[in-house]
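In this section we turn from sequence analysis to structure. A common task in structural bioinformatics is to predict how a protein folds when a small molecule is present, because the ligand can shape the pocket around it. The inputs are simple: the amino acid sequence and a SMILES string for the ligand, here flavin-adenine dinucleotide. Study the lines below before reading on.
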Amino acid sequence: MYRGVMIIGEQRGGELHPVTYELLARGRALADKLSEELSCVVLGHDMERFAEGIIQRGADVVYIVDNPLLRNFLPRPYTSVLTRLAKEVKPEIVLAAATTQGRTIMPLVAAKLDTGLTADCTGLDIDPLDRSLLQTRPAIGGNVMATIKTPASRPQMATVRPKSTKPLSADKARSGRVVLKSYEKDMFTTCEELVRFVKDATQDVNVQDADIVVSGGKGLKTRDNFCMIEELASLFGAAVGATRDVVDLGWVGYPHQIGLSGKTVSPKLYIALGLSGSVQHLAGMQTSETIVAINKDPDAQIFKVADFGIVGDLFDVVPELIEKLKERKNGKLRREG
Amino acid sequence: MNIYVLLKQVPGTSDVKMDEETGTMIRTEHKNVINPLDENALAEAIRLRDVMPEAKVTAISMGPPHAQKALREAIALGADEAVLLSHRGFGGSDTLATSKALAKALVTLAGGKLGKNDLVLCGERATDGETGQVGPMVSAILDVPVVTYVRKIDCENHAIVAERVVEEGLELIKASLPAVVTVIKDINQPGFPTLSGKLKAKSREIPVITPLDLGLSSDDVGLQGSPTRVVKVFRPRLSRDTIMCRQDSAGTAVDNLISFLEERGVV
Ligand SMILES: Cc1cc2nc3c(=O)[nH]c(=O)nc-3n(C[C@H](O)[C@H](O)[C@H](O)COP(=O)(O)OP(=O)(O)OC[C@H]3O[C@@H](n4cnc5c(N)ncnc54)[C@H](O)[C@@H]3O)c2cc1C
Ligand SMILES: Nc1ncnc2c1ncn2[C@@H]1O[C@H](COP(=O)(O)O)[C@@H](O)[C@H]1O
């Protein structure tokens, strides 16, 4: 009998990555609908200190597998441990983040468990008729959404797009169990080895962590004009985003690409400038809290998802906006000073 | 050394058109292409072969009969051999069923077991399904190591050293062979077909393999062998209550925008 929901916590460099809290929020909602427990697995070394926080964010049970050999993410030992644990705990649902880790480990575990896996889900729900998991993801280049079920195999497994869920706030009153798991040595043997990790500054563009994202599209016409986007972004304290066409033109690097084949963001404010709002782009930003669009074409798709739209030439609107924001800032400083 | 490239035929990107009424995809066969990342995988295989004595590149694809066009292209680009897994019984396979079939084909082609220097290359993901699951699943079924998101490969004796691109940087991973590697766009710039390649591609027989040839039953592959089912396809409804302004010389649009942002507490 498979019961309950299990999420796989993400550990990077010995720290619990916040995407874990997003998974907990997803898992909690599903577990409540099923009236079952939510468990969270954390693999690594010295990770027990995160258990309390995991419980406060929604887990009923935390499984900790502690071993120095799990310090770095390596497919072989992570697969062995997770496969074994899934066989012992028998959750009906297993979720992980659609990150490089989650997207690597989940297919490995799913194949070992001989069960189905749905990648990159943006929506998860429980079918009230048969209590099965409804896994919704963009399909056909983001043109449509497909809902997928795993009728006969268990567990039902899915990876979830980062930033597609808001974490629950920590509830200090919540209680739960912490279970320390240990396994025999050969579970940790590996034929892969992390020789070295090099932190890459160019990859450090945190569009996904930013509260405000200012994105530009091909409407900017040249790389030089794209500087306007960067200036506006710095005024807002925002990250710079871009469409794929802009990235392909080389105006900014791939880490800035928002959309189906780029990053998914859901900031407090998304400002879209001179971009049409293709389905593929919308797939990466439409869950933003507030969306502002500026485009000269009144029929541009982007206005369909915008809260505030300005129909106009961005070469007039943006400089004016930059000017007024600067005045406003200076005014504020003067008042405060 | 045998280098196997798993290569999928996908619809050309500009080619995916939607039927607005039914919400289904309109596909036209002749505009299909090799999945772009699989071209990178193939180019990498060819690069490795050319520095390795007696290495051979075999392209493997599973798909409808017209997928042999993609395999001919692979030969024109420099692959030594190509085989196609094609049969109605494979139809409707999800990623797990596809991986089982491809894994079985690899083992069969390798004569029972992958060799100590063999390498399987895949694209990180295909543009149609966008799952990126097949590479890792194949490795799990074969019980060999996998390195994903790779942008550089160096071969050593019975091992590879690969640069794996993750969110915060670069991992240098050493893995023993045989292994599966999934590659990303940065790994290389795919080349063009050569004249001799084109000639070879024209005359070459491309063997077609069926589930029976692989000793697979209908429970293993196809719809029956697939644990997942698409139960609904729909168009996302996107609508918000939009405040629209038109830019004018008086600057009211921008003033309105700033007040709007103040109201929402974002500036
Ligand atoms: C499988 C697949 C995956 C994809 N993945 C992504 C992805 O992840 N992210 C992504 O963004 N795209 C993706 N795309 C590409 C996508 O289909 C579009 O081609 C792309 O988003 C368009 O970029 P754009 O909006 O910058 O350009 P365009 O569509 O050309 O839009 C430019 C806009 O600028 C406006 N404009 C021009 N001049 C001005 C001006 N002076 N003032 C104001 N407005 C002006 C125009 O009215 C127009 O609306 C993908 C495509 C496929 C097939
Ligand atoms: N039908 C197929 N035939 C051959 N290779 C495939 C097939 N499907 C997937 N692959 C390989 O697996 C990779 C990932 O595909 P996917 O999991 O569909 O995103 C592709 O880039 C191919 O290398």
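Chain B is about 25% helix and 30% strand. As an exercise, try to locate the residues that line the flavin-adenine dinucleotide site and compare them with your own expectations.
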